[in-house]
Automatic annotation (TrEMBL):
It is a multi-pass membrane protein. This is ABC transporter permease. Belongs to the binding-protein-dependent transport system permease family. Keywords: Membrane, Transmembrane, Transmembrane helix, Transport. The chain crosses the membrane at residues 33-55, 67-87, 99-119, 148-174, 198-219. InterPro entries: ABC_transp_perm/SBD, MetI-like, MetI-like_sf. It comes from Amycolatopsis halotolerans. Residues 29-216 form the ABC transmembrane type-1 domain. PANTHER family: GLYCINE BETAINE/L-PROLINE TRANSPORT SYSTEM PERMEASE PROTEIN PROW (PTHR30177), POSSIBLE OSMOPROTECTANT (GLYCINE BETAINE_CARNITINE_CHOLINE_L-PROLINE) TRANSPORT INTEGRAL MEMBRANE PROTEIN ABC TRANSPORTER PROZ (PTHR30177:SF33). It is found in: Cell membrane; Membrane.
Amino acid sequence: MSFFAQLSQWLADPNRWSWTDPAGIPFRTVQHLWFSALALVISIVLTVPFALWLAHYRRGQFLASSAVNIGRAIPSFGLIILFWFLASRWGANTDFWPLLLALVALALPPLFTNTYAGVVQVEQEVVDAARGTGYREWQIMLRVELPLASPVIVAAARVAFLQLVATVAIGAIVNDGGGLGRYIVDGFALGEQGHGEIFGGGVAVVILALVCEGLFALLTKLATPRGLALQQARRDS
């Protein structure tokens, strides 16, 4: 059977477009996004408050710079295999925890670094003015520094989320609930008869990543305070 015939047959399967069938594209897309979003939310909760506090008091500069190098050096597939091995040794659920822990570990460095950098870049005059009006330190962090740093933080979440979407696909190698990546893994298992499924799964992951990129671009625009947006517009003009 030719490649195009395999792809057509794969796409023509009525269950392929089911929201309830575990083999359906909509079902696996939701599964893919759920894993990615869960890891991102956990990473934000663990990282942003801590980085905000450190940056406000100008501490942890070495940690912030080291996070960049750590994030670049961590191999995503190696992390997945490591956590899968540990989960299997400890009797934990190997279909959930290995991939989730690997995703969180990958998202932490960019979120921490950008949050720290975004807060540090807030003009000291703005912070002093807020302090002079009676704002307490926690109010300065939440009402001044965090909003002004939000475009940089959202940009980090954007990069992290796209990396998570790609990594979930890789995680299908050790995870039965690997979202759209299951098509690629299952296709390889079929050999020459699975080329259409491999291509379809790969295209689905690419489309999902592009859609997420567009949504985060819109979110970045919405998260930018109006004053910063006007200032940036004046600079561009």
